[in-house]
Amino acid sequence: MTVETITRIKPEKVDYVSTTNACKACAPLGASVVFRGIEGGVPFLHGSQGCATYMRRYLISHYREPIDIASSALGEKHAIYGGGPNLKLGLINVMKKYGAQVIGVATTCLTETIGDDVPMILHEFKKEFADLDLPTLVWVSTPSYKGSHVEGFHSAVRAVCEQIPDPAMDKHDGVNLLPGFVSPEDLRHLRDVFDDFGLAVTMVPDYSDTLDGPALEDYEKIPSGGTSVEDIRAMSGARATFELGAVLAGAEKTGGTALQESHGVDLHRLPMPIGLRNTDAFFAALEEVSGRETPARHAKERGRLVDAMVDGHKYISGKRAVVYGDEDLVAGLVAMLAEIGIQPVLVASGGNSGRLPAAIEEAGGDILRQPPKVMPGVDFYEIKNEAEKLAPDLVIGNSKGYRMAREWNVPLVRVGFPIHDRFGAQRTMHVGYKGTQALFDRIVNATLEKKQADSPLGWGYL
Question: Phi then psi for 132, rounded to 5 degrees?
Fold first, then answer.
């Protein structure tokens, strides 16, 4: 299968092309999610106050949890003289007010543009306050002009894997999992899978509790949960690292490669386990590392999924879909859609890693009769202009595609991030046989609901 890639066509001598309704969020937002997934961790944005406010609001709307993001709160003066003093003062304030064990410092467009040397500032901070019980400090470069929230997420994961693991740690039988930007429910399911294979797993990040926690009588400034610093230090001694994401797998520098190059940890890079083939590959890797066969529980989940695909095929075969969102997610979705007989006619993402077309070609394999059009690095204005020519039967992506789905009178199956107009986004499953089953059921039911709503008779039996 050959994928047709669509790129922006810009007139000559045009220096700037505006974005209308971006199909991505800011890079520091992704970094904030990672730091939220470390026990005792507080995300800290080195930049203006507005950056932290915007990202807090965006994340709260999706996860339905209170989320604190600290800021160095730079103003006009700091843009001229530098933000070092504010960063140091902000770190002290976070230590006093939160008792943070870890502070993850992510840069923003402002501090990257003015050239603040964050590693040097943190080095000075450690020397100046060496008499204090300092938290673990991690920093990452995440200007939004350099990438999307997913690039920020992966950059923060790499920073954690570079800066915290201890080379002096003994080798052990545990494994590392770098799951990618998935839902808290996905993280819980992945942990269960590793447990069932008898593998002690360290996930970076693990926000399954910190971004989807229980109701408590007393408010916690830093929510319980997350991966401990001690476990992250021991990642250097693990017997293997699993890194999920087909697009991510094409990157030269990731958290997995950092552990492999610096500590010799064996790396298994796999596509996001969405769909039958991708999940089979994931479980095959688990069998190889653990030395165990797939537990009966998961073998039965696979069997039920295959049975459901047979039962539901008649409702969705030949349907045409527009798919958009994070690059690793859409690659996994295309692999699944190809298996269930849906033709993805357009695959789009605000991410622009340069690796999406190859990942989509691999995902479709020899199953898709026609390759989809692939649009990396685009906004919803461009997606809409291209997609409305293709007569889709359904749209699969986050909430930001609602208006175009409504205009076309086709169902929107909400997946990924952000989901602001439905409840339970943090509990939406995508991965594994179980997650694929949940997605398949939602796609089939969305198609049935549309058929039922369009019928003048309102059939009660389909």
Answer: -95, 160
Which runs of consecutive H residues, i.e. helices, occur in 99-165? 109-114, 118-128, 149-163
Q: What does the alpha-carbon distance between residue 371 and residue 345 come to, in Å, rounded to a whole number?
A: 8
Give, for 393, the enclosing helix (H) or strand (E).
none
Q: d(Cα 391, Cα 410) in Å, to the nearest integer?
A: 10
295: Cα within 13 Å, side-chain hemisphere: 12
CA–CA gap between residue 322 and residue 412 (Å, rounded):
10
Cα 15 to chain centroid distance, Å, stands at 31
The predicted structure's pLDDT at residue 12: 56
Name the β-bridge partners of 5. 374
Residue showing tokens 């939406």: 428
H helix or E strand, kind and range, residue 457: none
Name the residue among 325, 242, 327 with its Cα closest to residue 284.
242
**Size of the chain in residues:** 462
Residue 106 · residue 44 · CB < 8 Å: yes
CA distances from 47 to 52, 69, 87, 90, 113 (A): 8, 12, 9, 11, 10
- In 3D, which of 376, 280, 246, 278 has the Cα closest to residue 323? 376
Q: Say if residue 316's pLDDT is above 90.
A: yes
Q: 21: which 2 tokens?
A: 């309704």
Say what angle helices 276-290 and 327-340 make with each other, to 10 degrees.
110
Q: CB–CB of 193/432 below 8 Å?
A: yes
For the chain, how long is the longest CA-to-CA vector? 77
- Residue 70's DSSP bridge partners are 44
Q: What is the pTM of this model?
A: 0.93
Report residue 299 as tokens: 């073998």
Residue 174 burial (C-beta neighbours within 10 Å; 0-12, 13-18, 19+): middle
Instruction: Give the model confidence (pLDDT) of 124-151 as tens digits.
Output: 999 999 999 999 999 999 998 888 999 9
Q: What distance, in Å, lies between the first and last C-alpha atoms of the chain?
A: 34
